[in-house]
Amino acid sequence: MLSSRRPASPGPCCVRSSSRAGGAGGNLNGLLALAVYAALHRAKGQTLAMPIAAQKDKIFEITDAELLGDALVWAAQAPVARNRTFNVTNGDVASWPDIFQVVAEYFGLELESPSEVTIAGKINEMAAAWARLVAEQGLVAPSDVHEFLGESAVLSDFSMEGAKSCVTSTIAIRSAGFHTYLDSADCMRKWFDRWQAEKLLPRR
C-alpha cells in the first residue's frame, strides 16, 4: 500500500549575502549607480572622479545577484541545509580602489586621484546629461536618473564611507555542498554587459 505521507522537506534556513551586485535596475543597486556614474563621465568626456572615501584601506566581499539566487535554490532543496545559517559571497575580497579601477578600465576612462566628490552629488549634477543619453541612444531606462536609480547612489556613498573591513566565512555553505564562486571583477563586467544589452546603460 502506498503511503499518503509526503517526503520530508528541508526546514527553514537562513542565507546571508554580503554587498549584492547586479540584478534588475532600480532602487538600492549600488553597482548600477557606479555604472551610470561612469557612463555620464564618459559621455561628457571627463576622467573618472574617485571619491576620497573610496581610498580607505578596507576590504569587503561582494555577492553576485545570480549566485545568491543559486544559493537560495540550493538551500531550499538540500536536506543538509535544514535549520542552518549560511553566508554566501563570490569567494574573493574587494576594495574600493580595485572596484574603481575595474569600472574605469571597462568604460575606457582615466581614473583621477581621489577628490571630495560623492556618487550621488555628481550624478545629481549630471542629471540633464543622463536624460540626453536616454533620448539619443533610445534607452529603456527612465530619463529621470533619480527615478531610475532611487537611492542607489546614496547606497554607494554610504558603503564607501564605512570605516571597517568586513569579511565573512563561507566555510559552512561550501562544506555543505554549495561550491559556486565568481571573480568579483568578472561579476561587475557581466552586469555592465547585460545592462547595456538590455538598454539600461548607454553603449560604450
Keywords:
single chain; 204 residues; mainly alpha; Rossmann fold; two-stranded parallel ribbon; 9 helices; disordered N terminus
Summarize the structure.
This protein is mainly alpha-helical. It contains nine helices and four strands; from the N terminus they run ββαβαβααααααα.
Uncertain regions spanning at least 5 consecutive residues: 1-7
Within the largest sheet, what's the order of strands? 1-4
Count the beta strands: 4
Form type? globular
Total count of domains: 1
- Taking all Cα atoms into account, the compactness measure Rg is 20 Å
- SS field, number of helical segments: 9
**String of helices and strands:** EEHEHEHHHHHHH
Helicity, as a percent range: 40-55%
- Name of the CATH homologous superfamily: NAD(P)-binding Rossmann-like Domain
Q: Mind telling me the CATH class? A: Alpha Beta
Q: What name does CATH use for the topology?
A: Rossmann fold
Description of the molecule:
With about 200 residues, the protein is mostly helical. It has one domain (about 15-195): NAD(P)-binding Rossmann-like Domain (Rossmann fold, 3-Layer(aba) Sandwich). Helices cover about 45% and strands about 5% of the residues. It contains nine helices and four strands, in the order ββαβαβααααααα. The protein has helices at about 30-45, 65-75, 95-105, 120-125, 125-135, 145-150, 150-160, 170-175, 185-195, and strands at about 15, 20, 60-65, 85-90. The strands form two sheets. Strands 1-4 form a two-stranded parallel sheet. It has a two-stranded parallel sheet with strand order 2-3. Helix 1 packs across helix 4 (about 120-125), helix 1 (about 30-45) crosses helix 7 (about 150-160) and helix 3 runs parallel beside helix 9. The longest helix is centred in the first third of the chain and has 14 residues, at about 30-45.
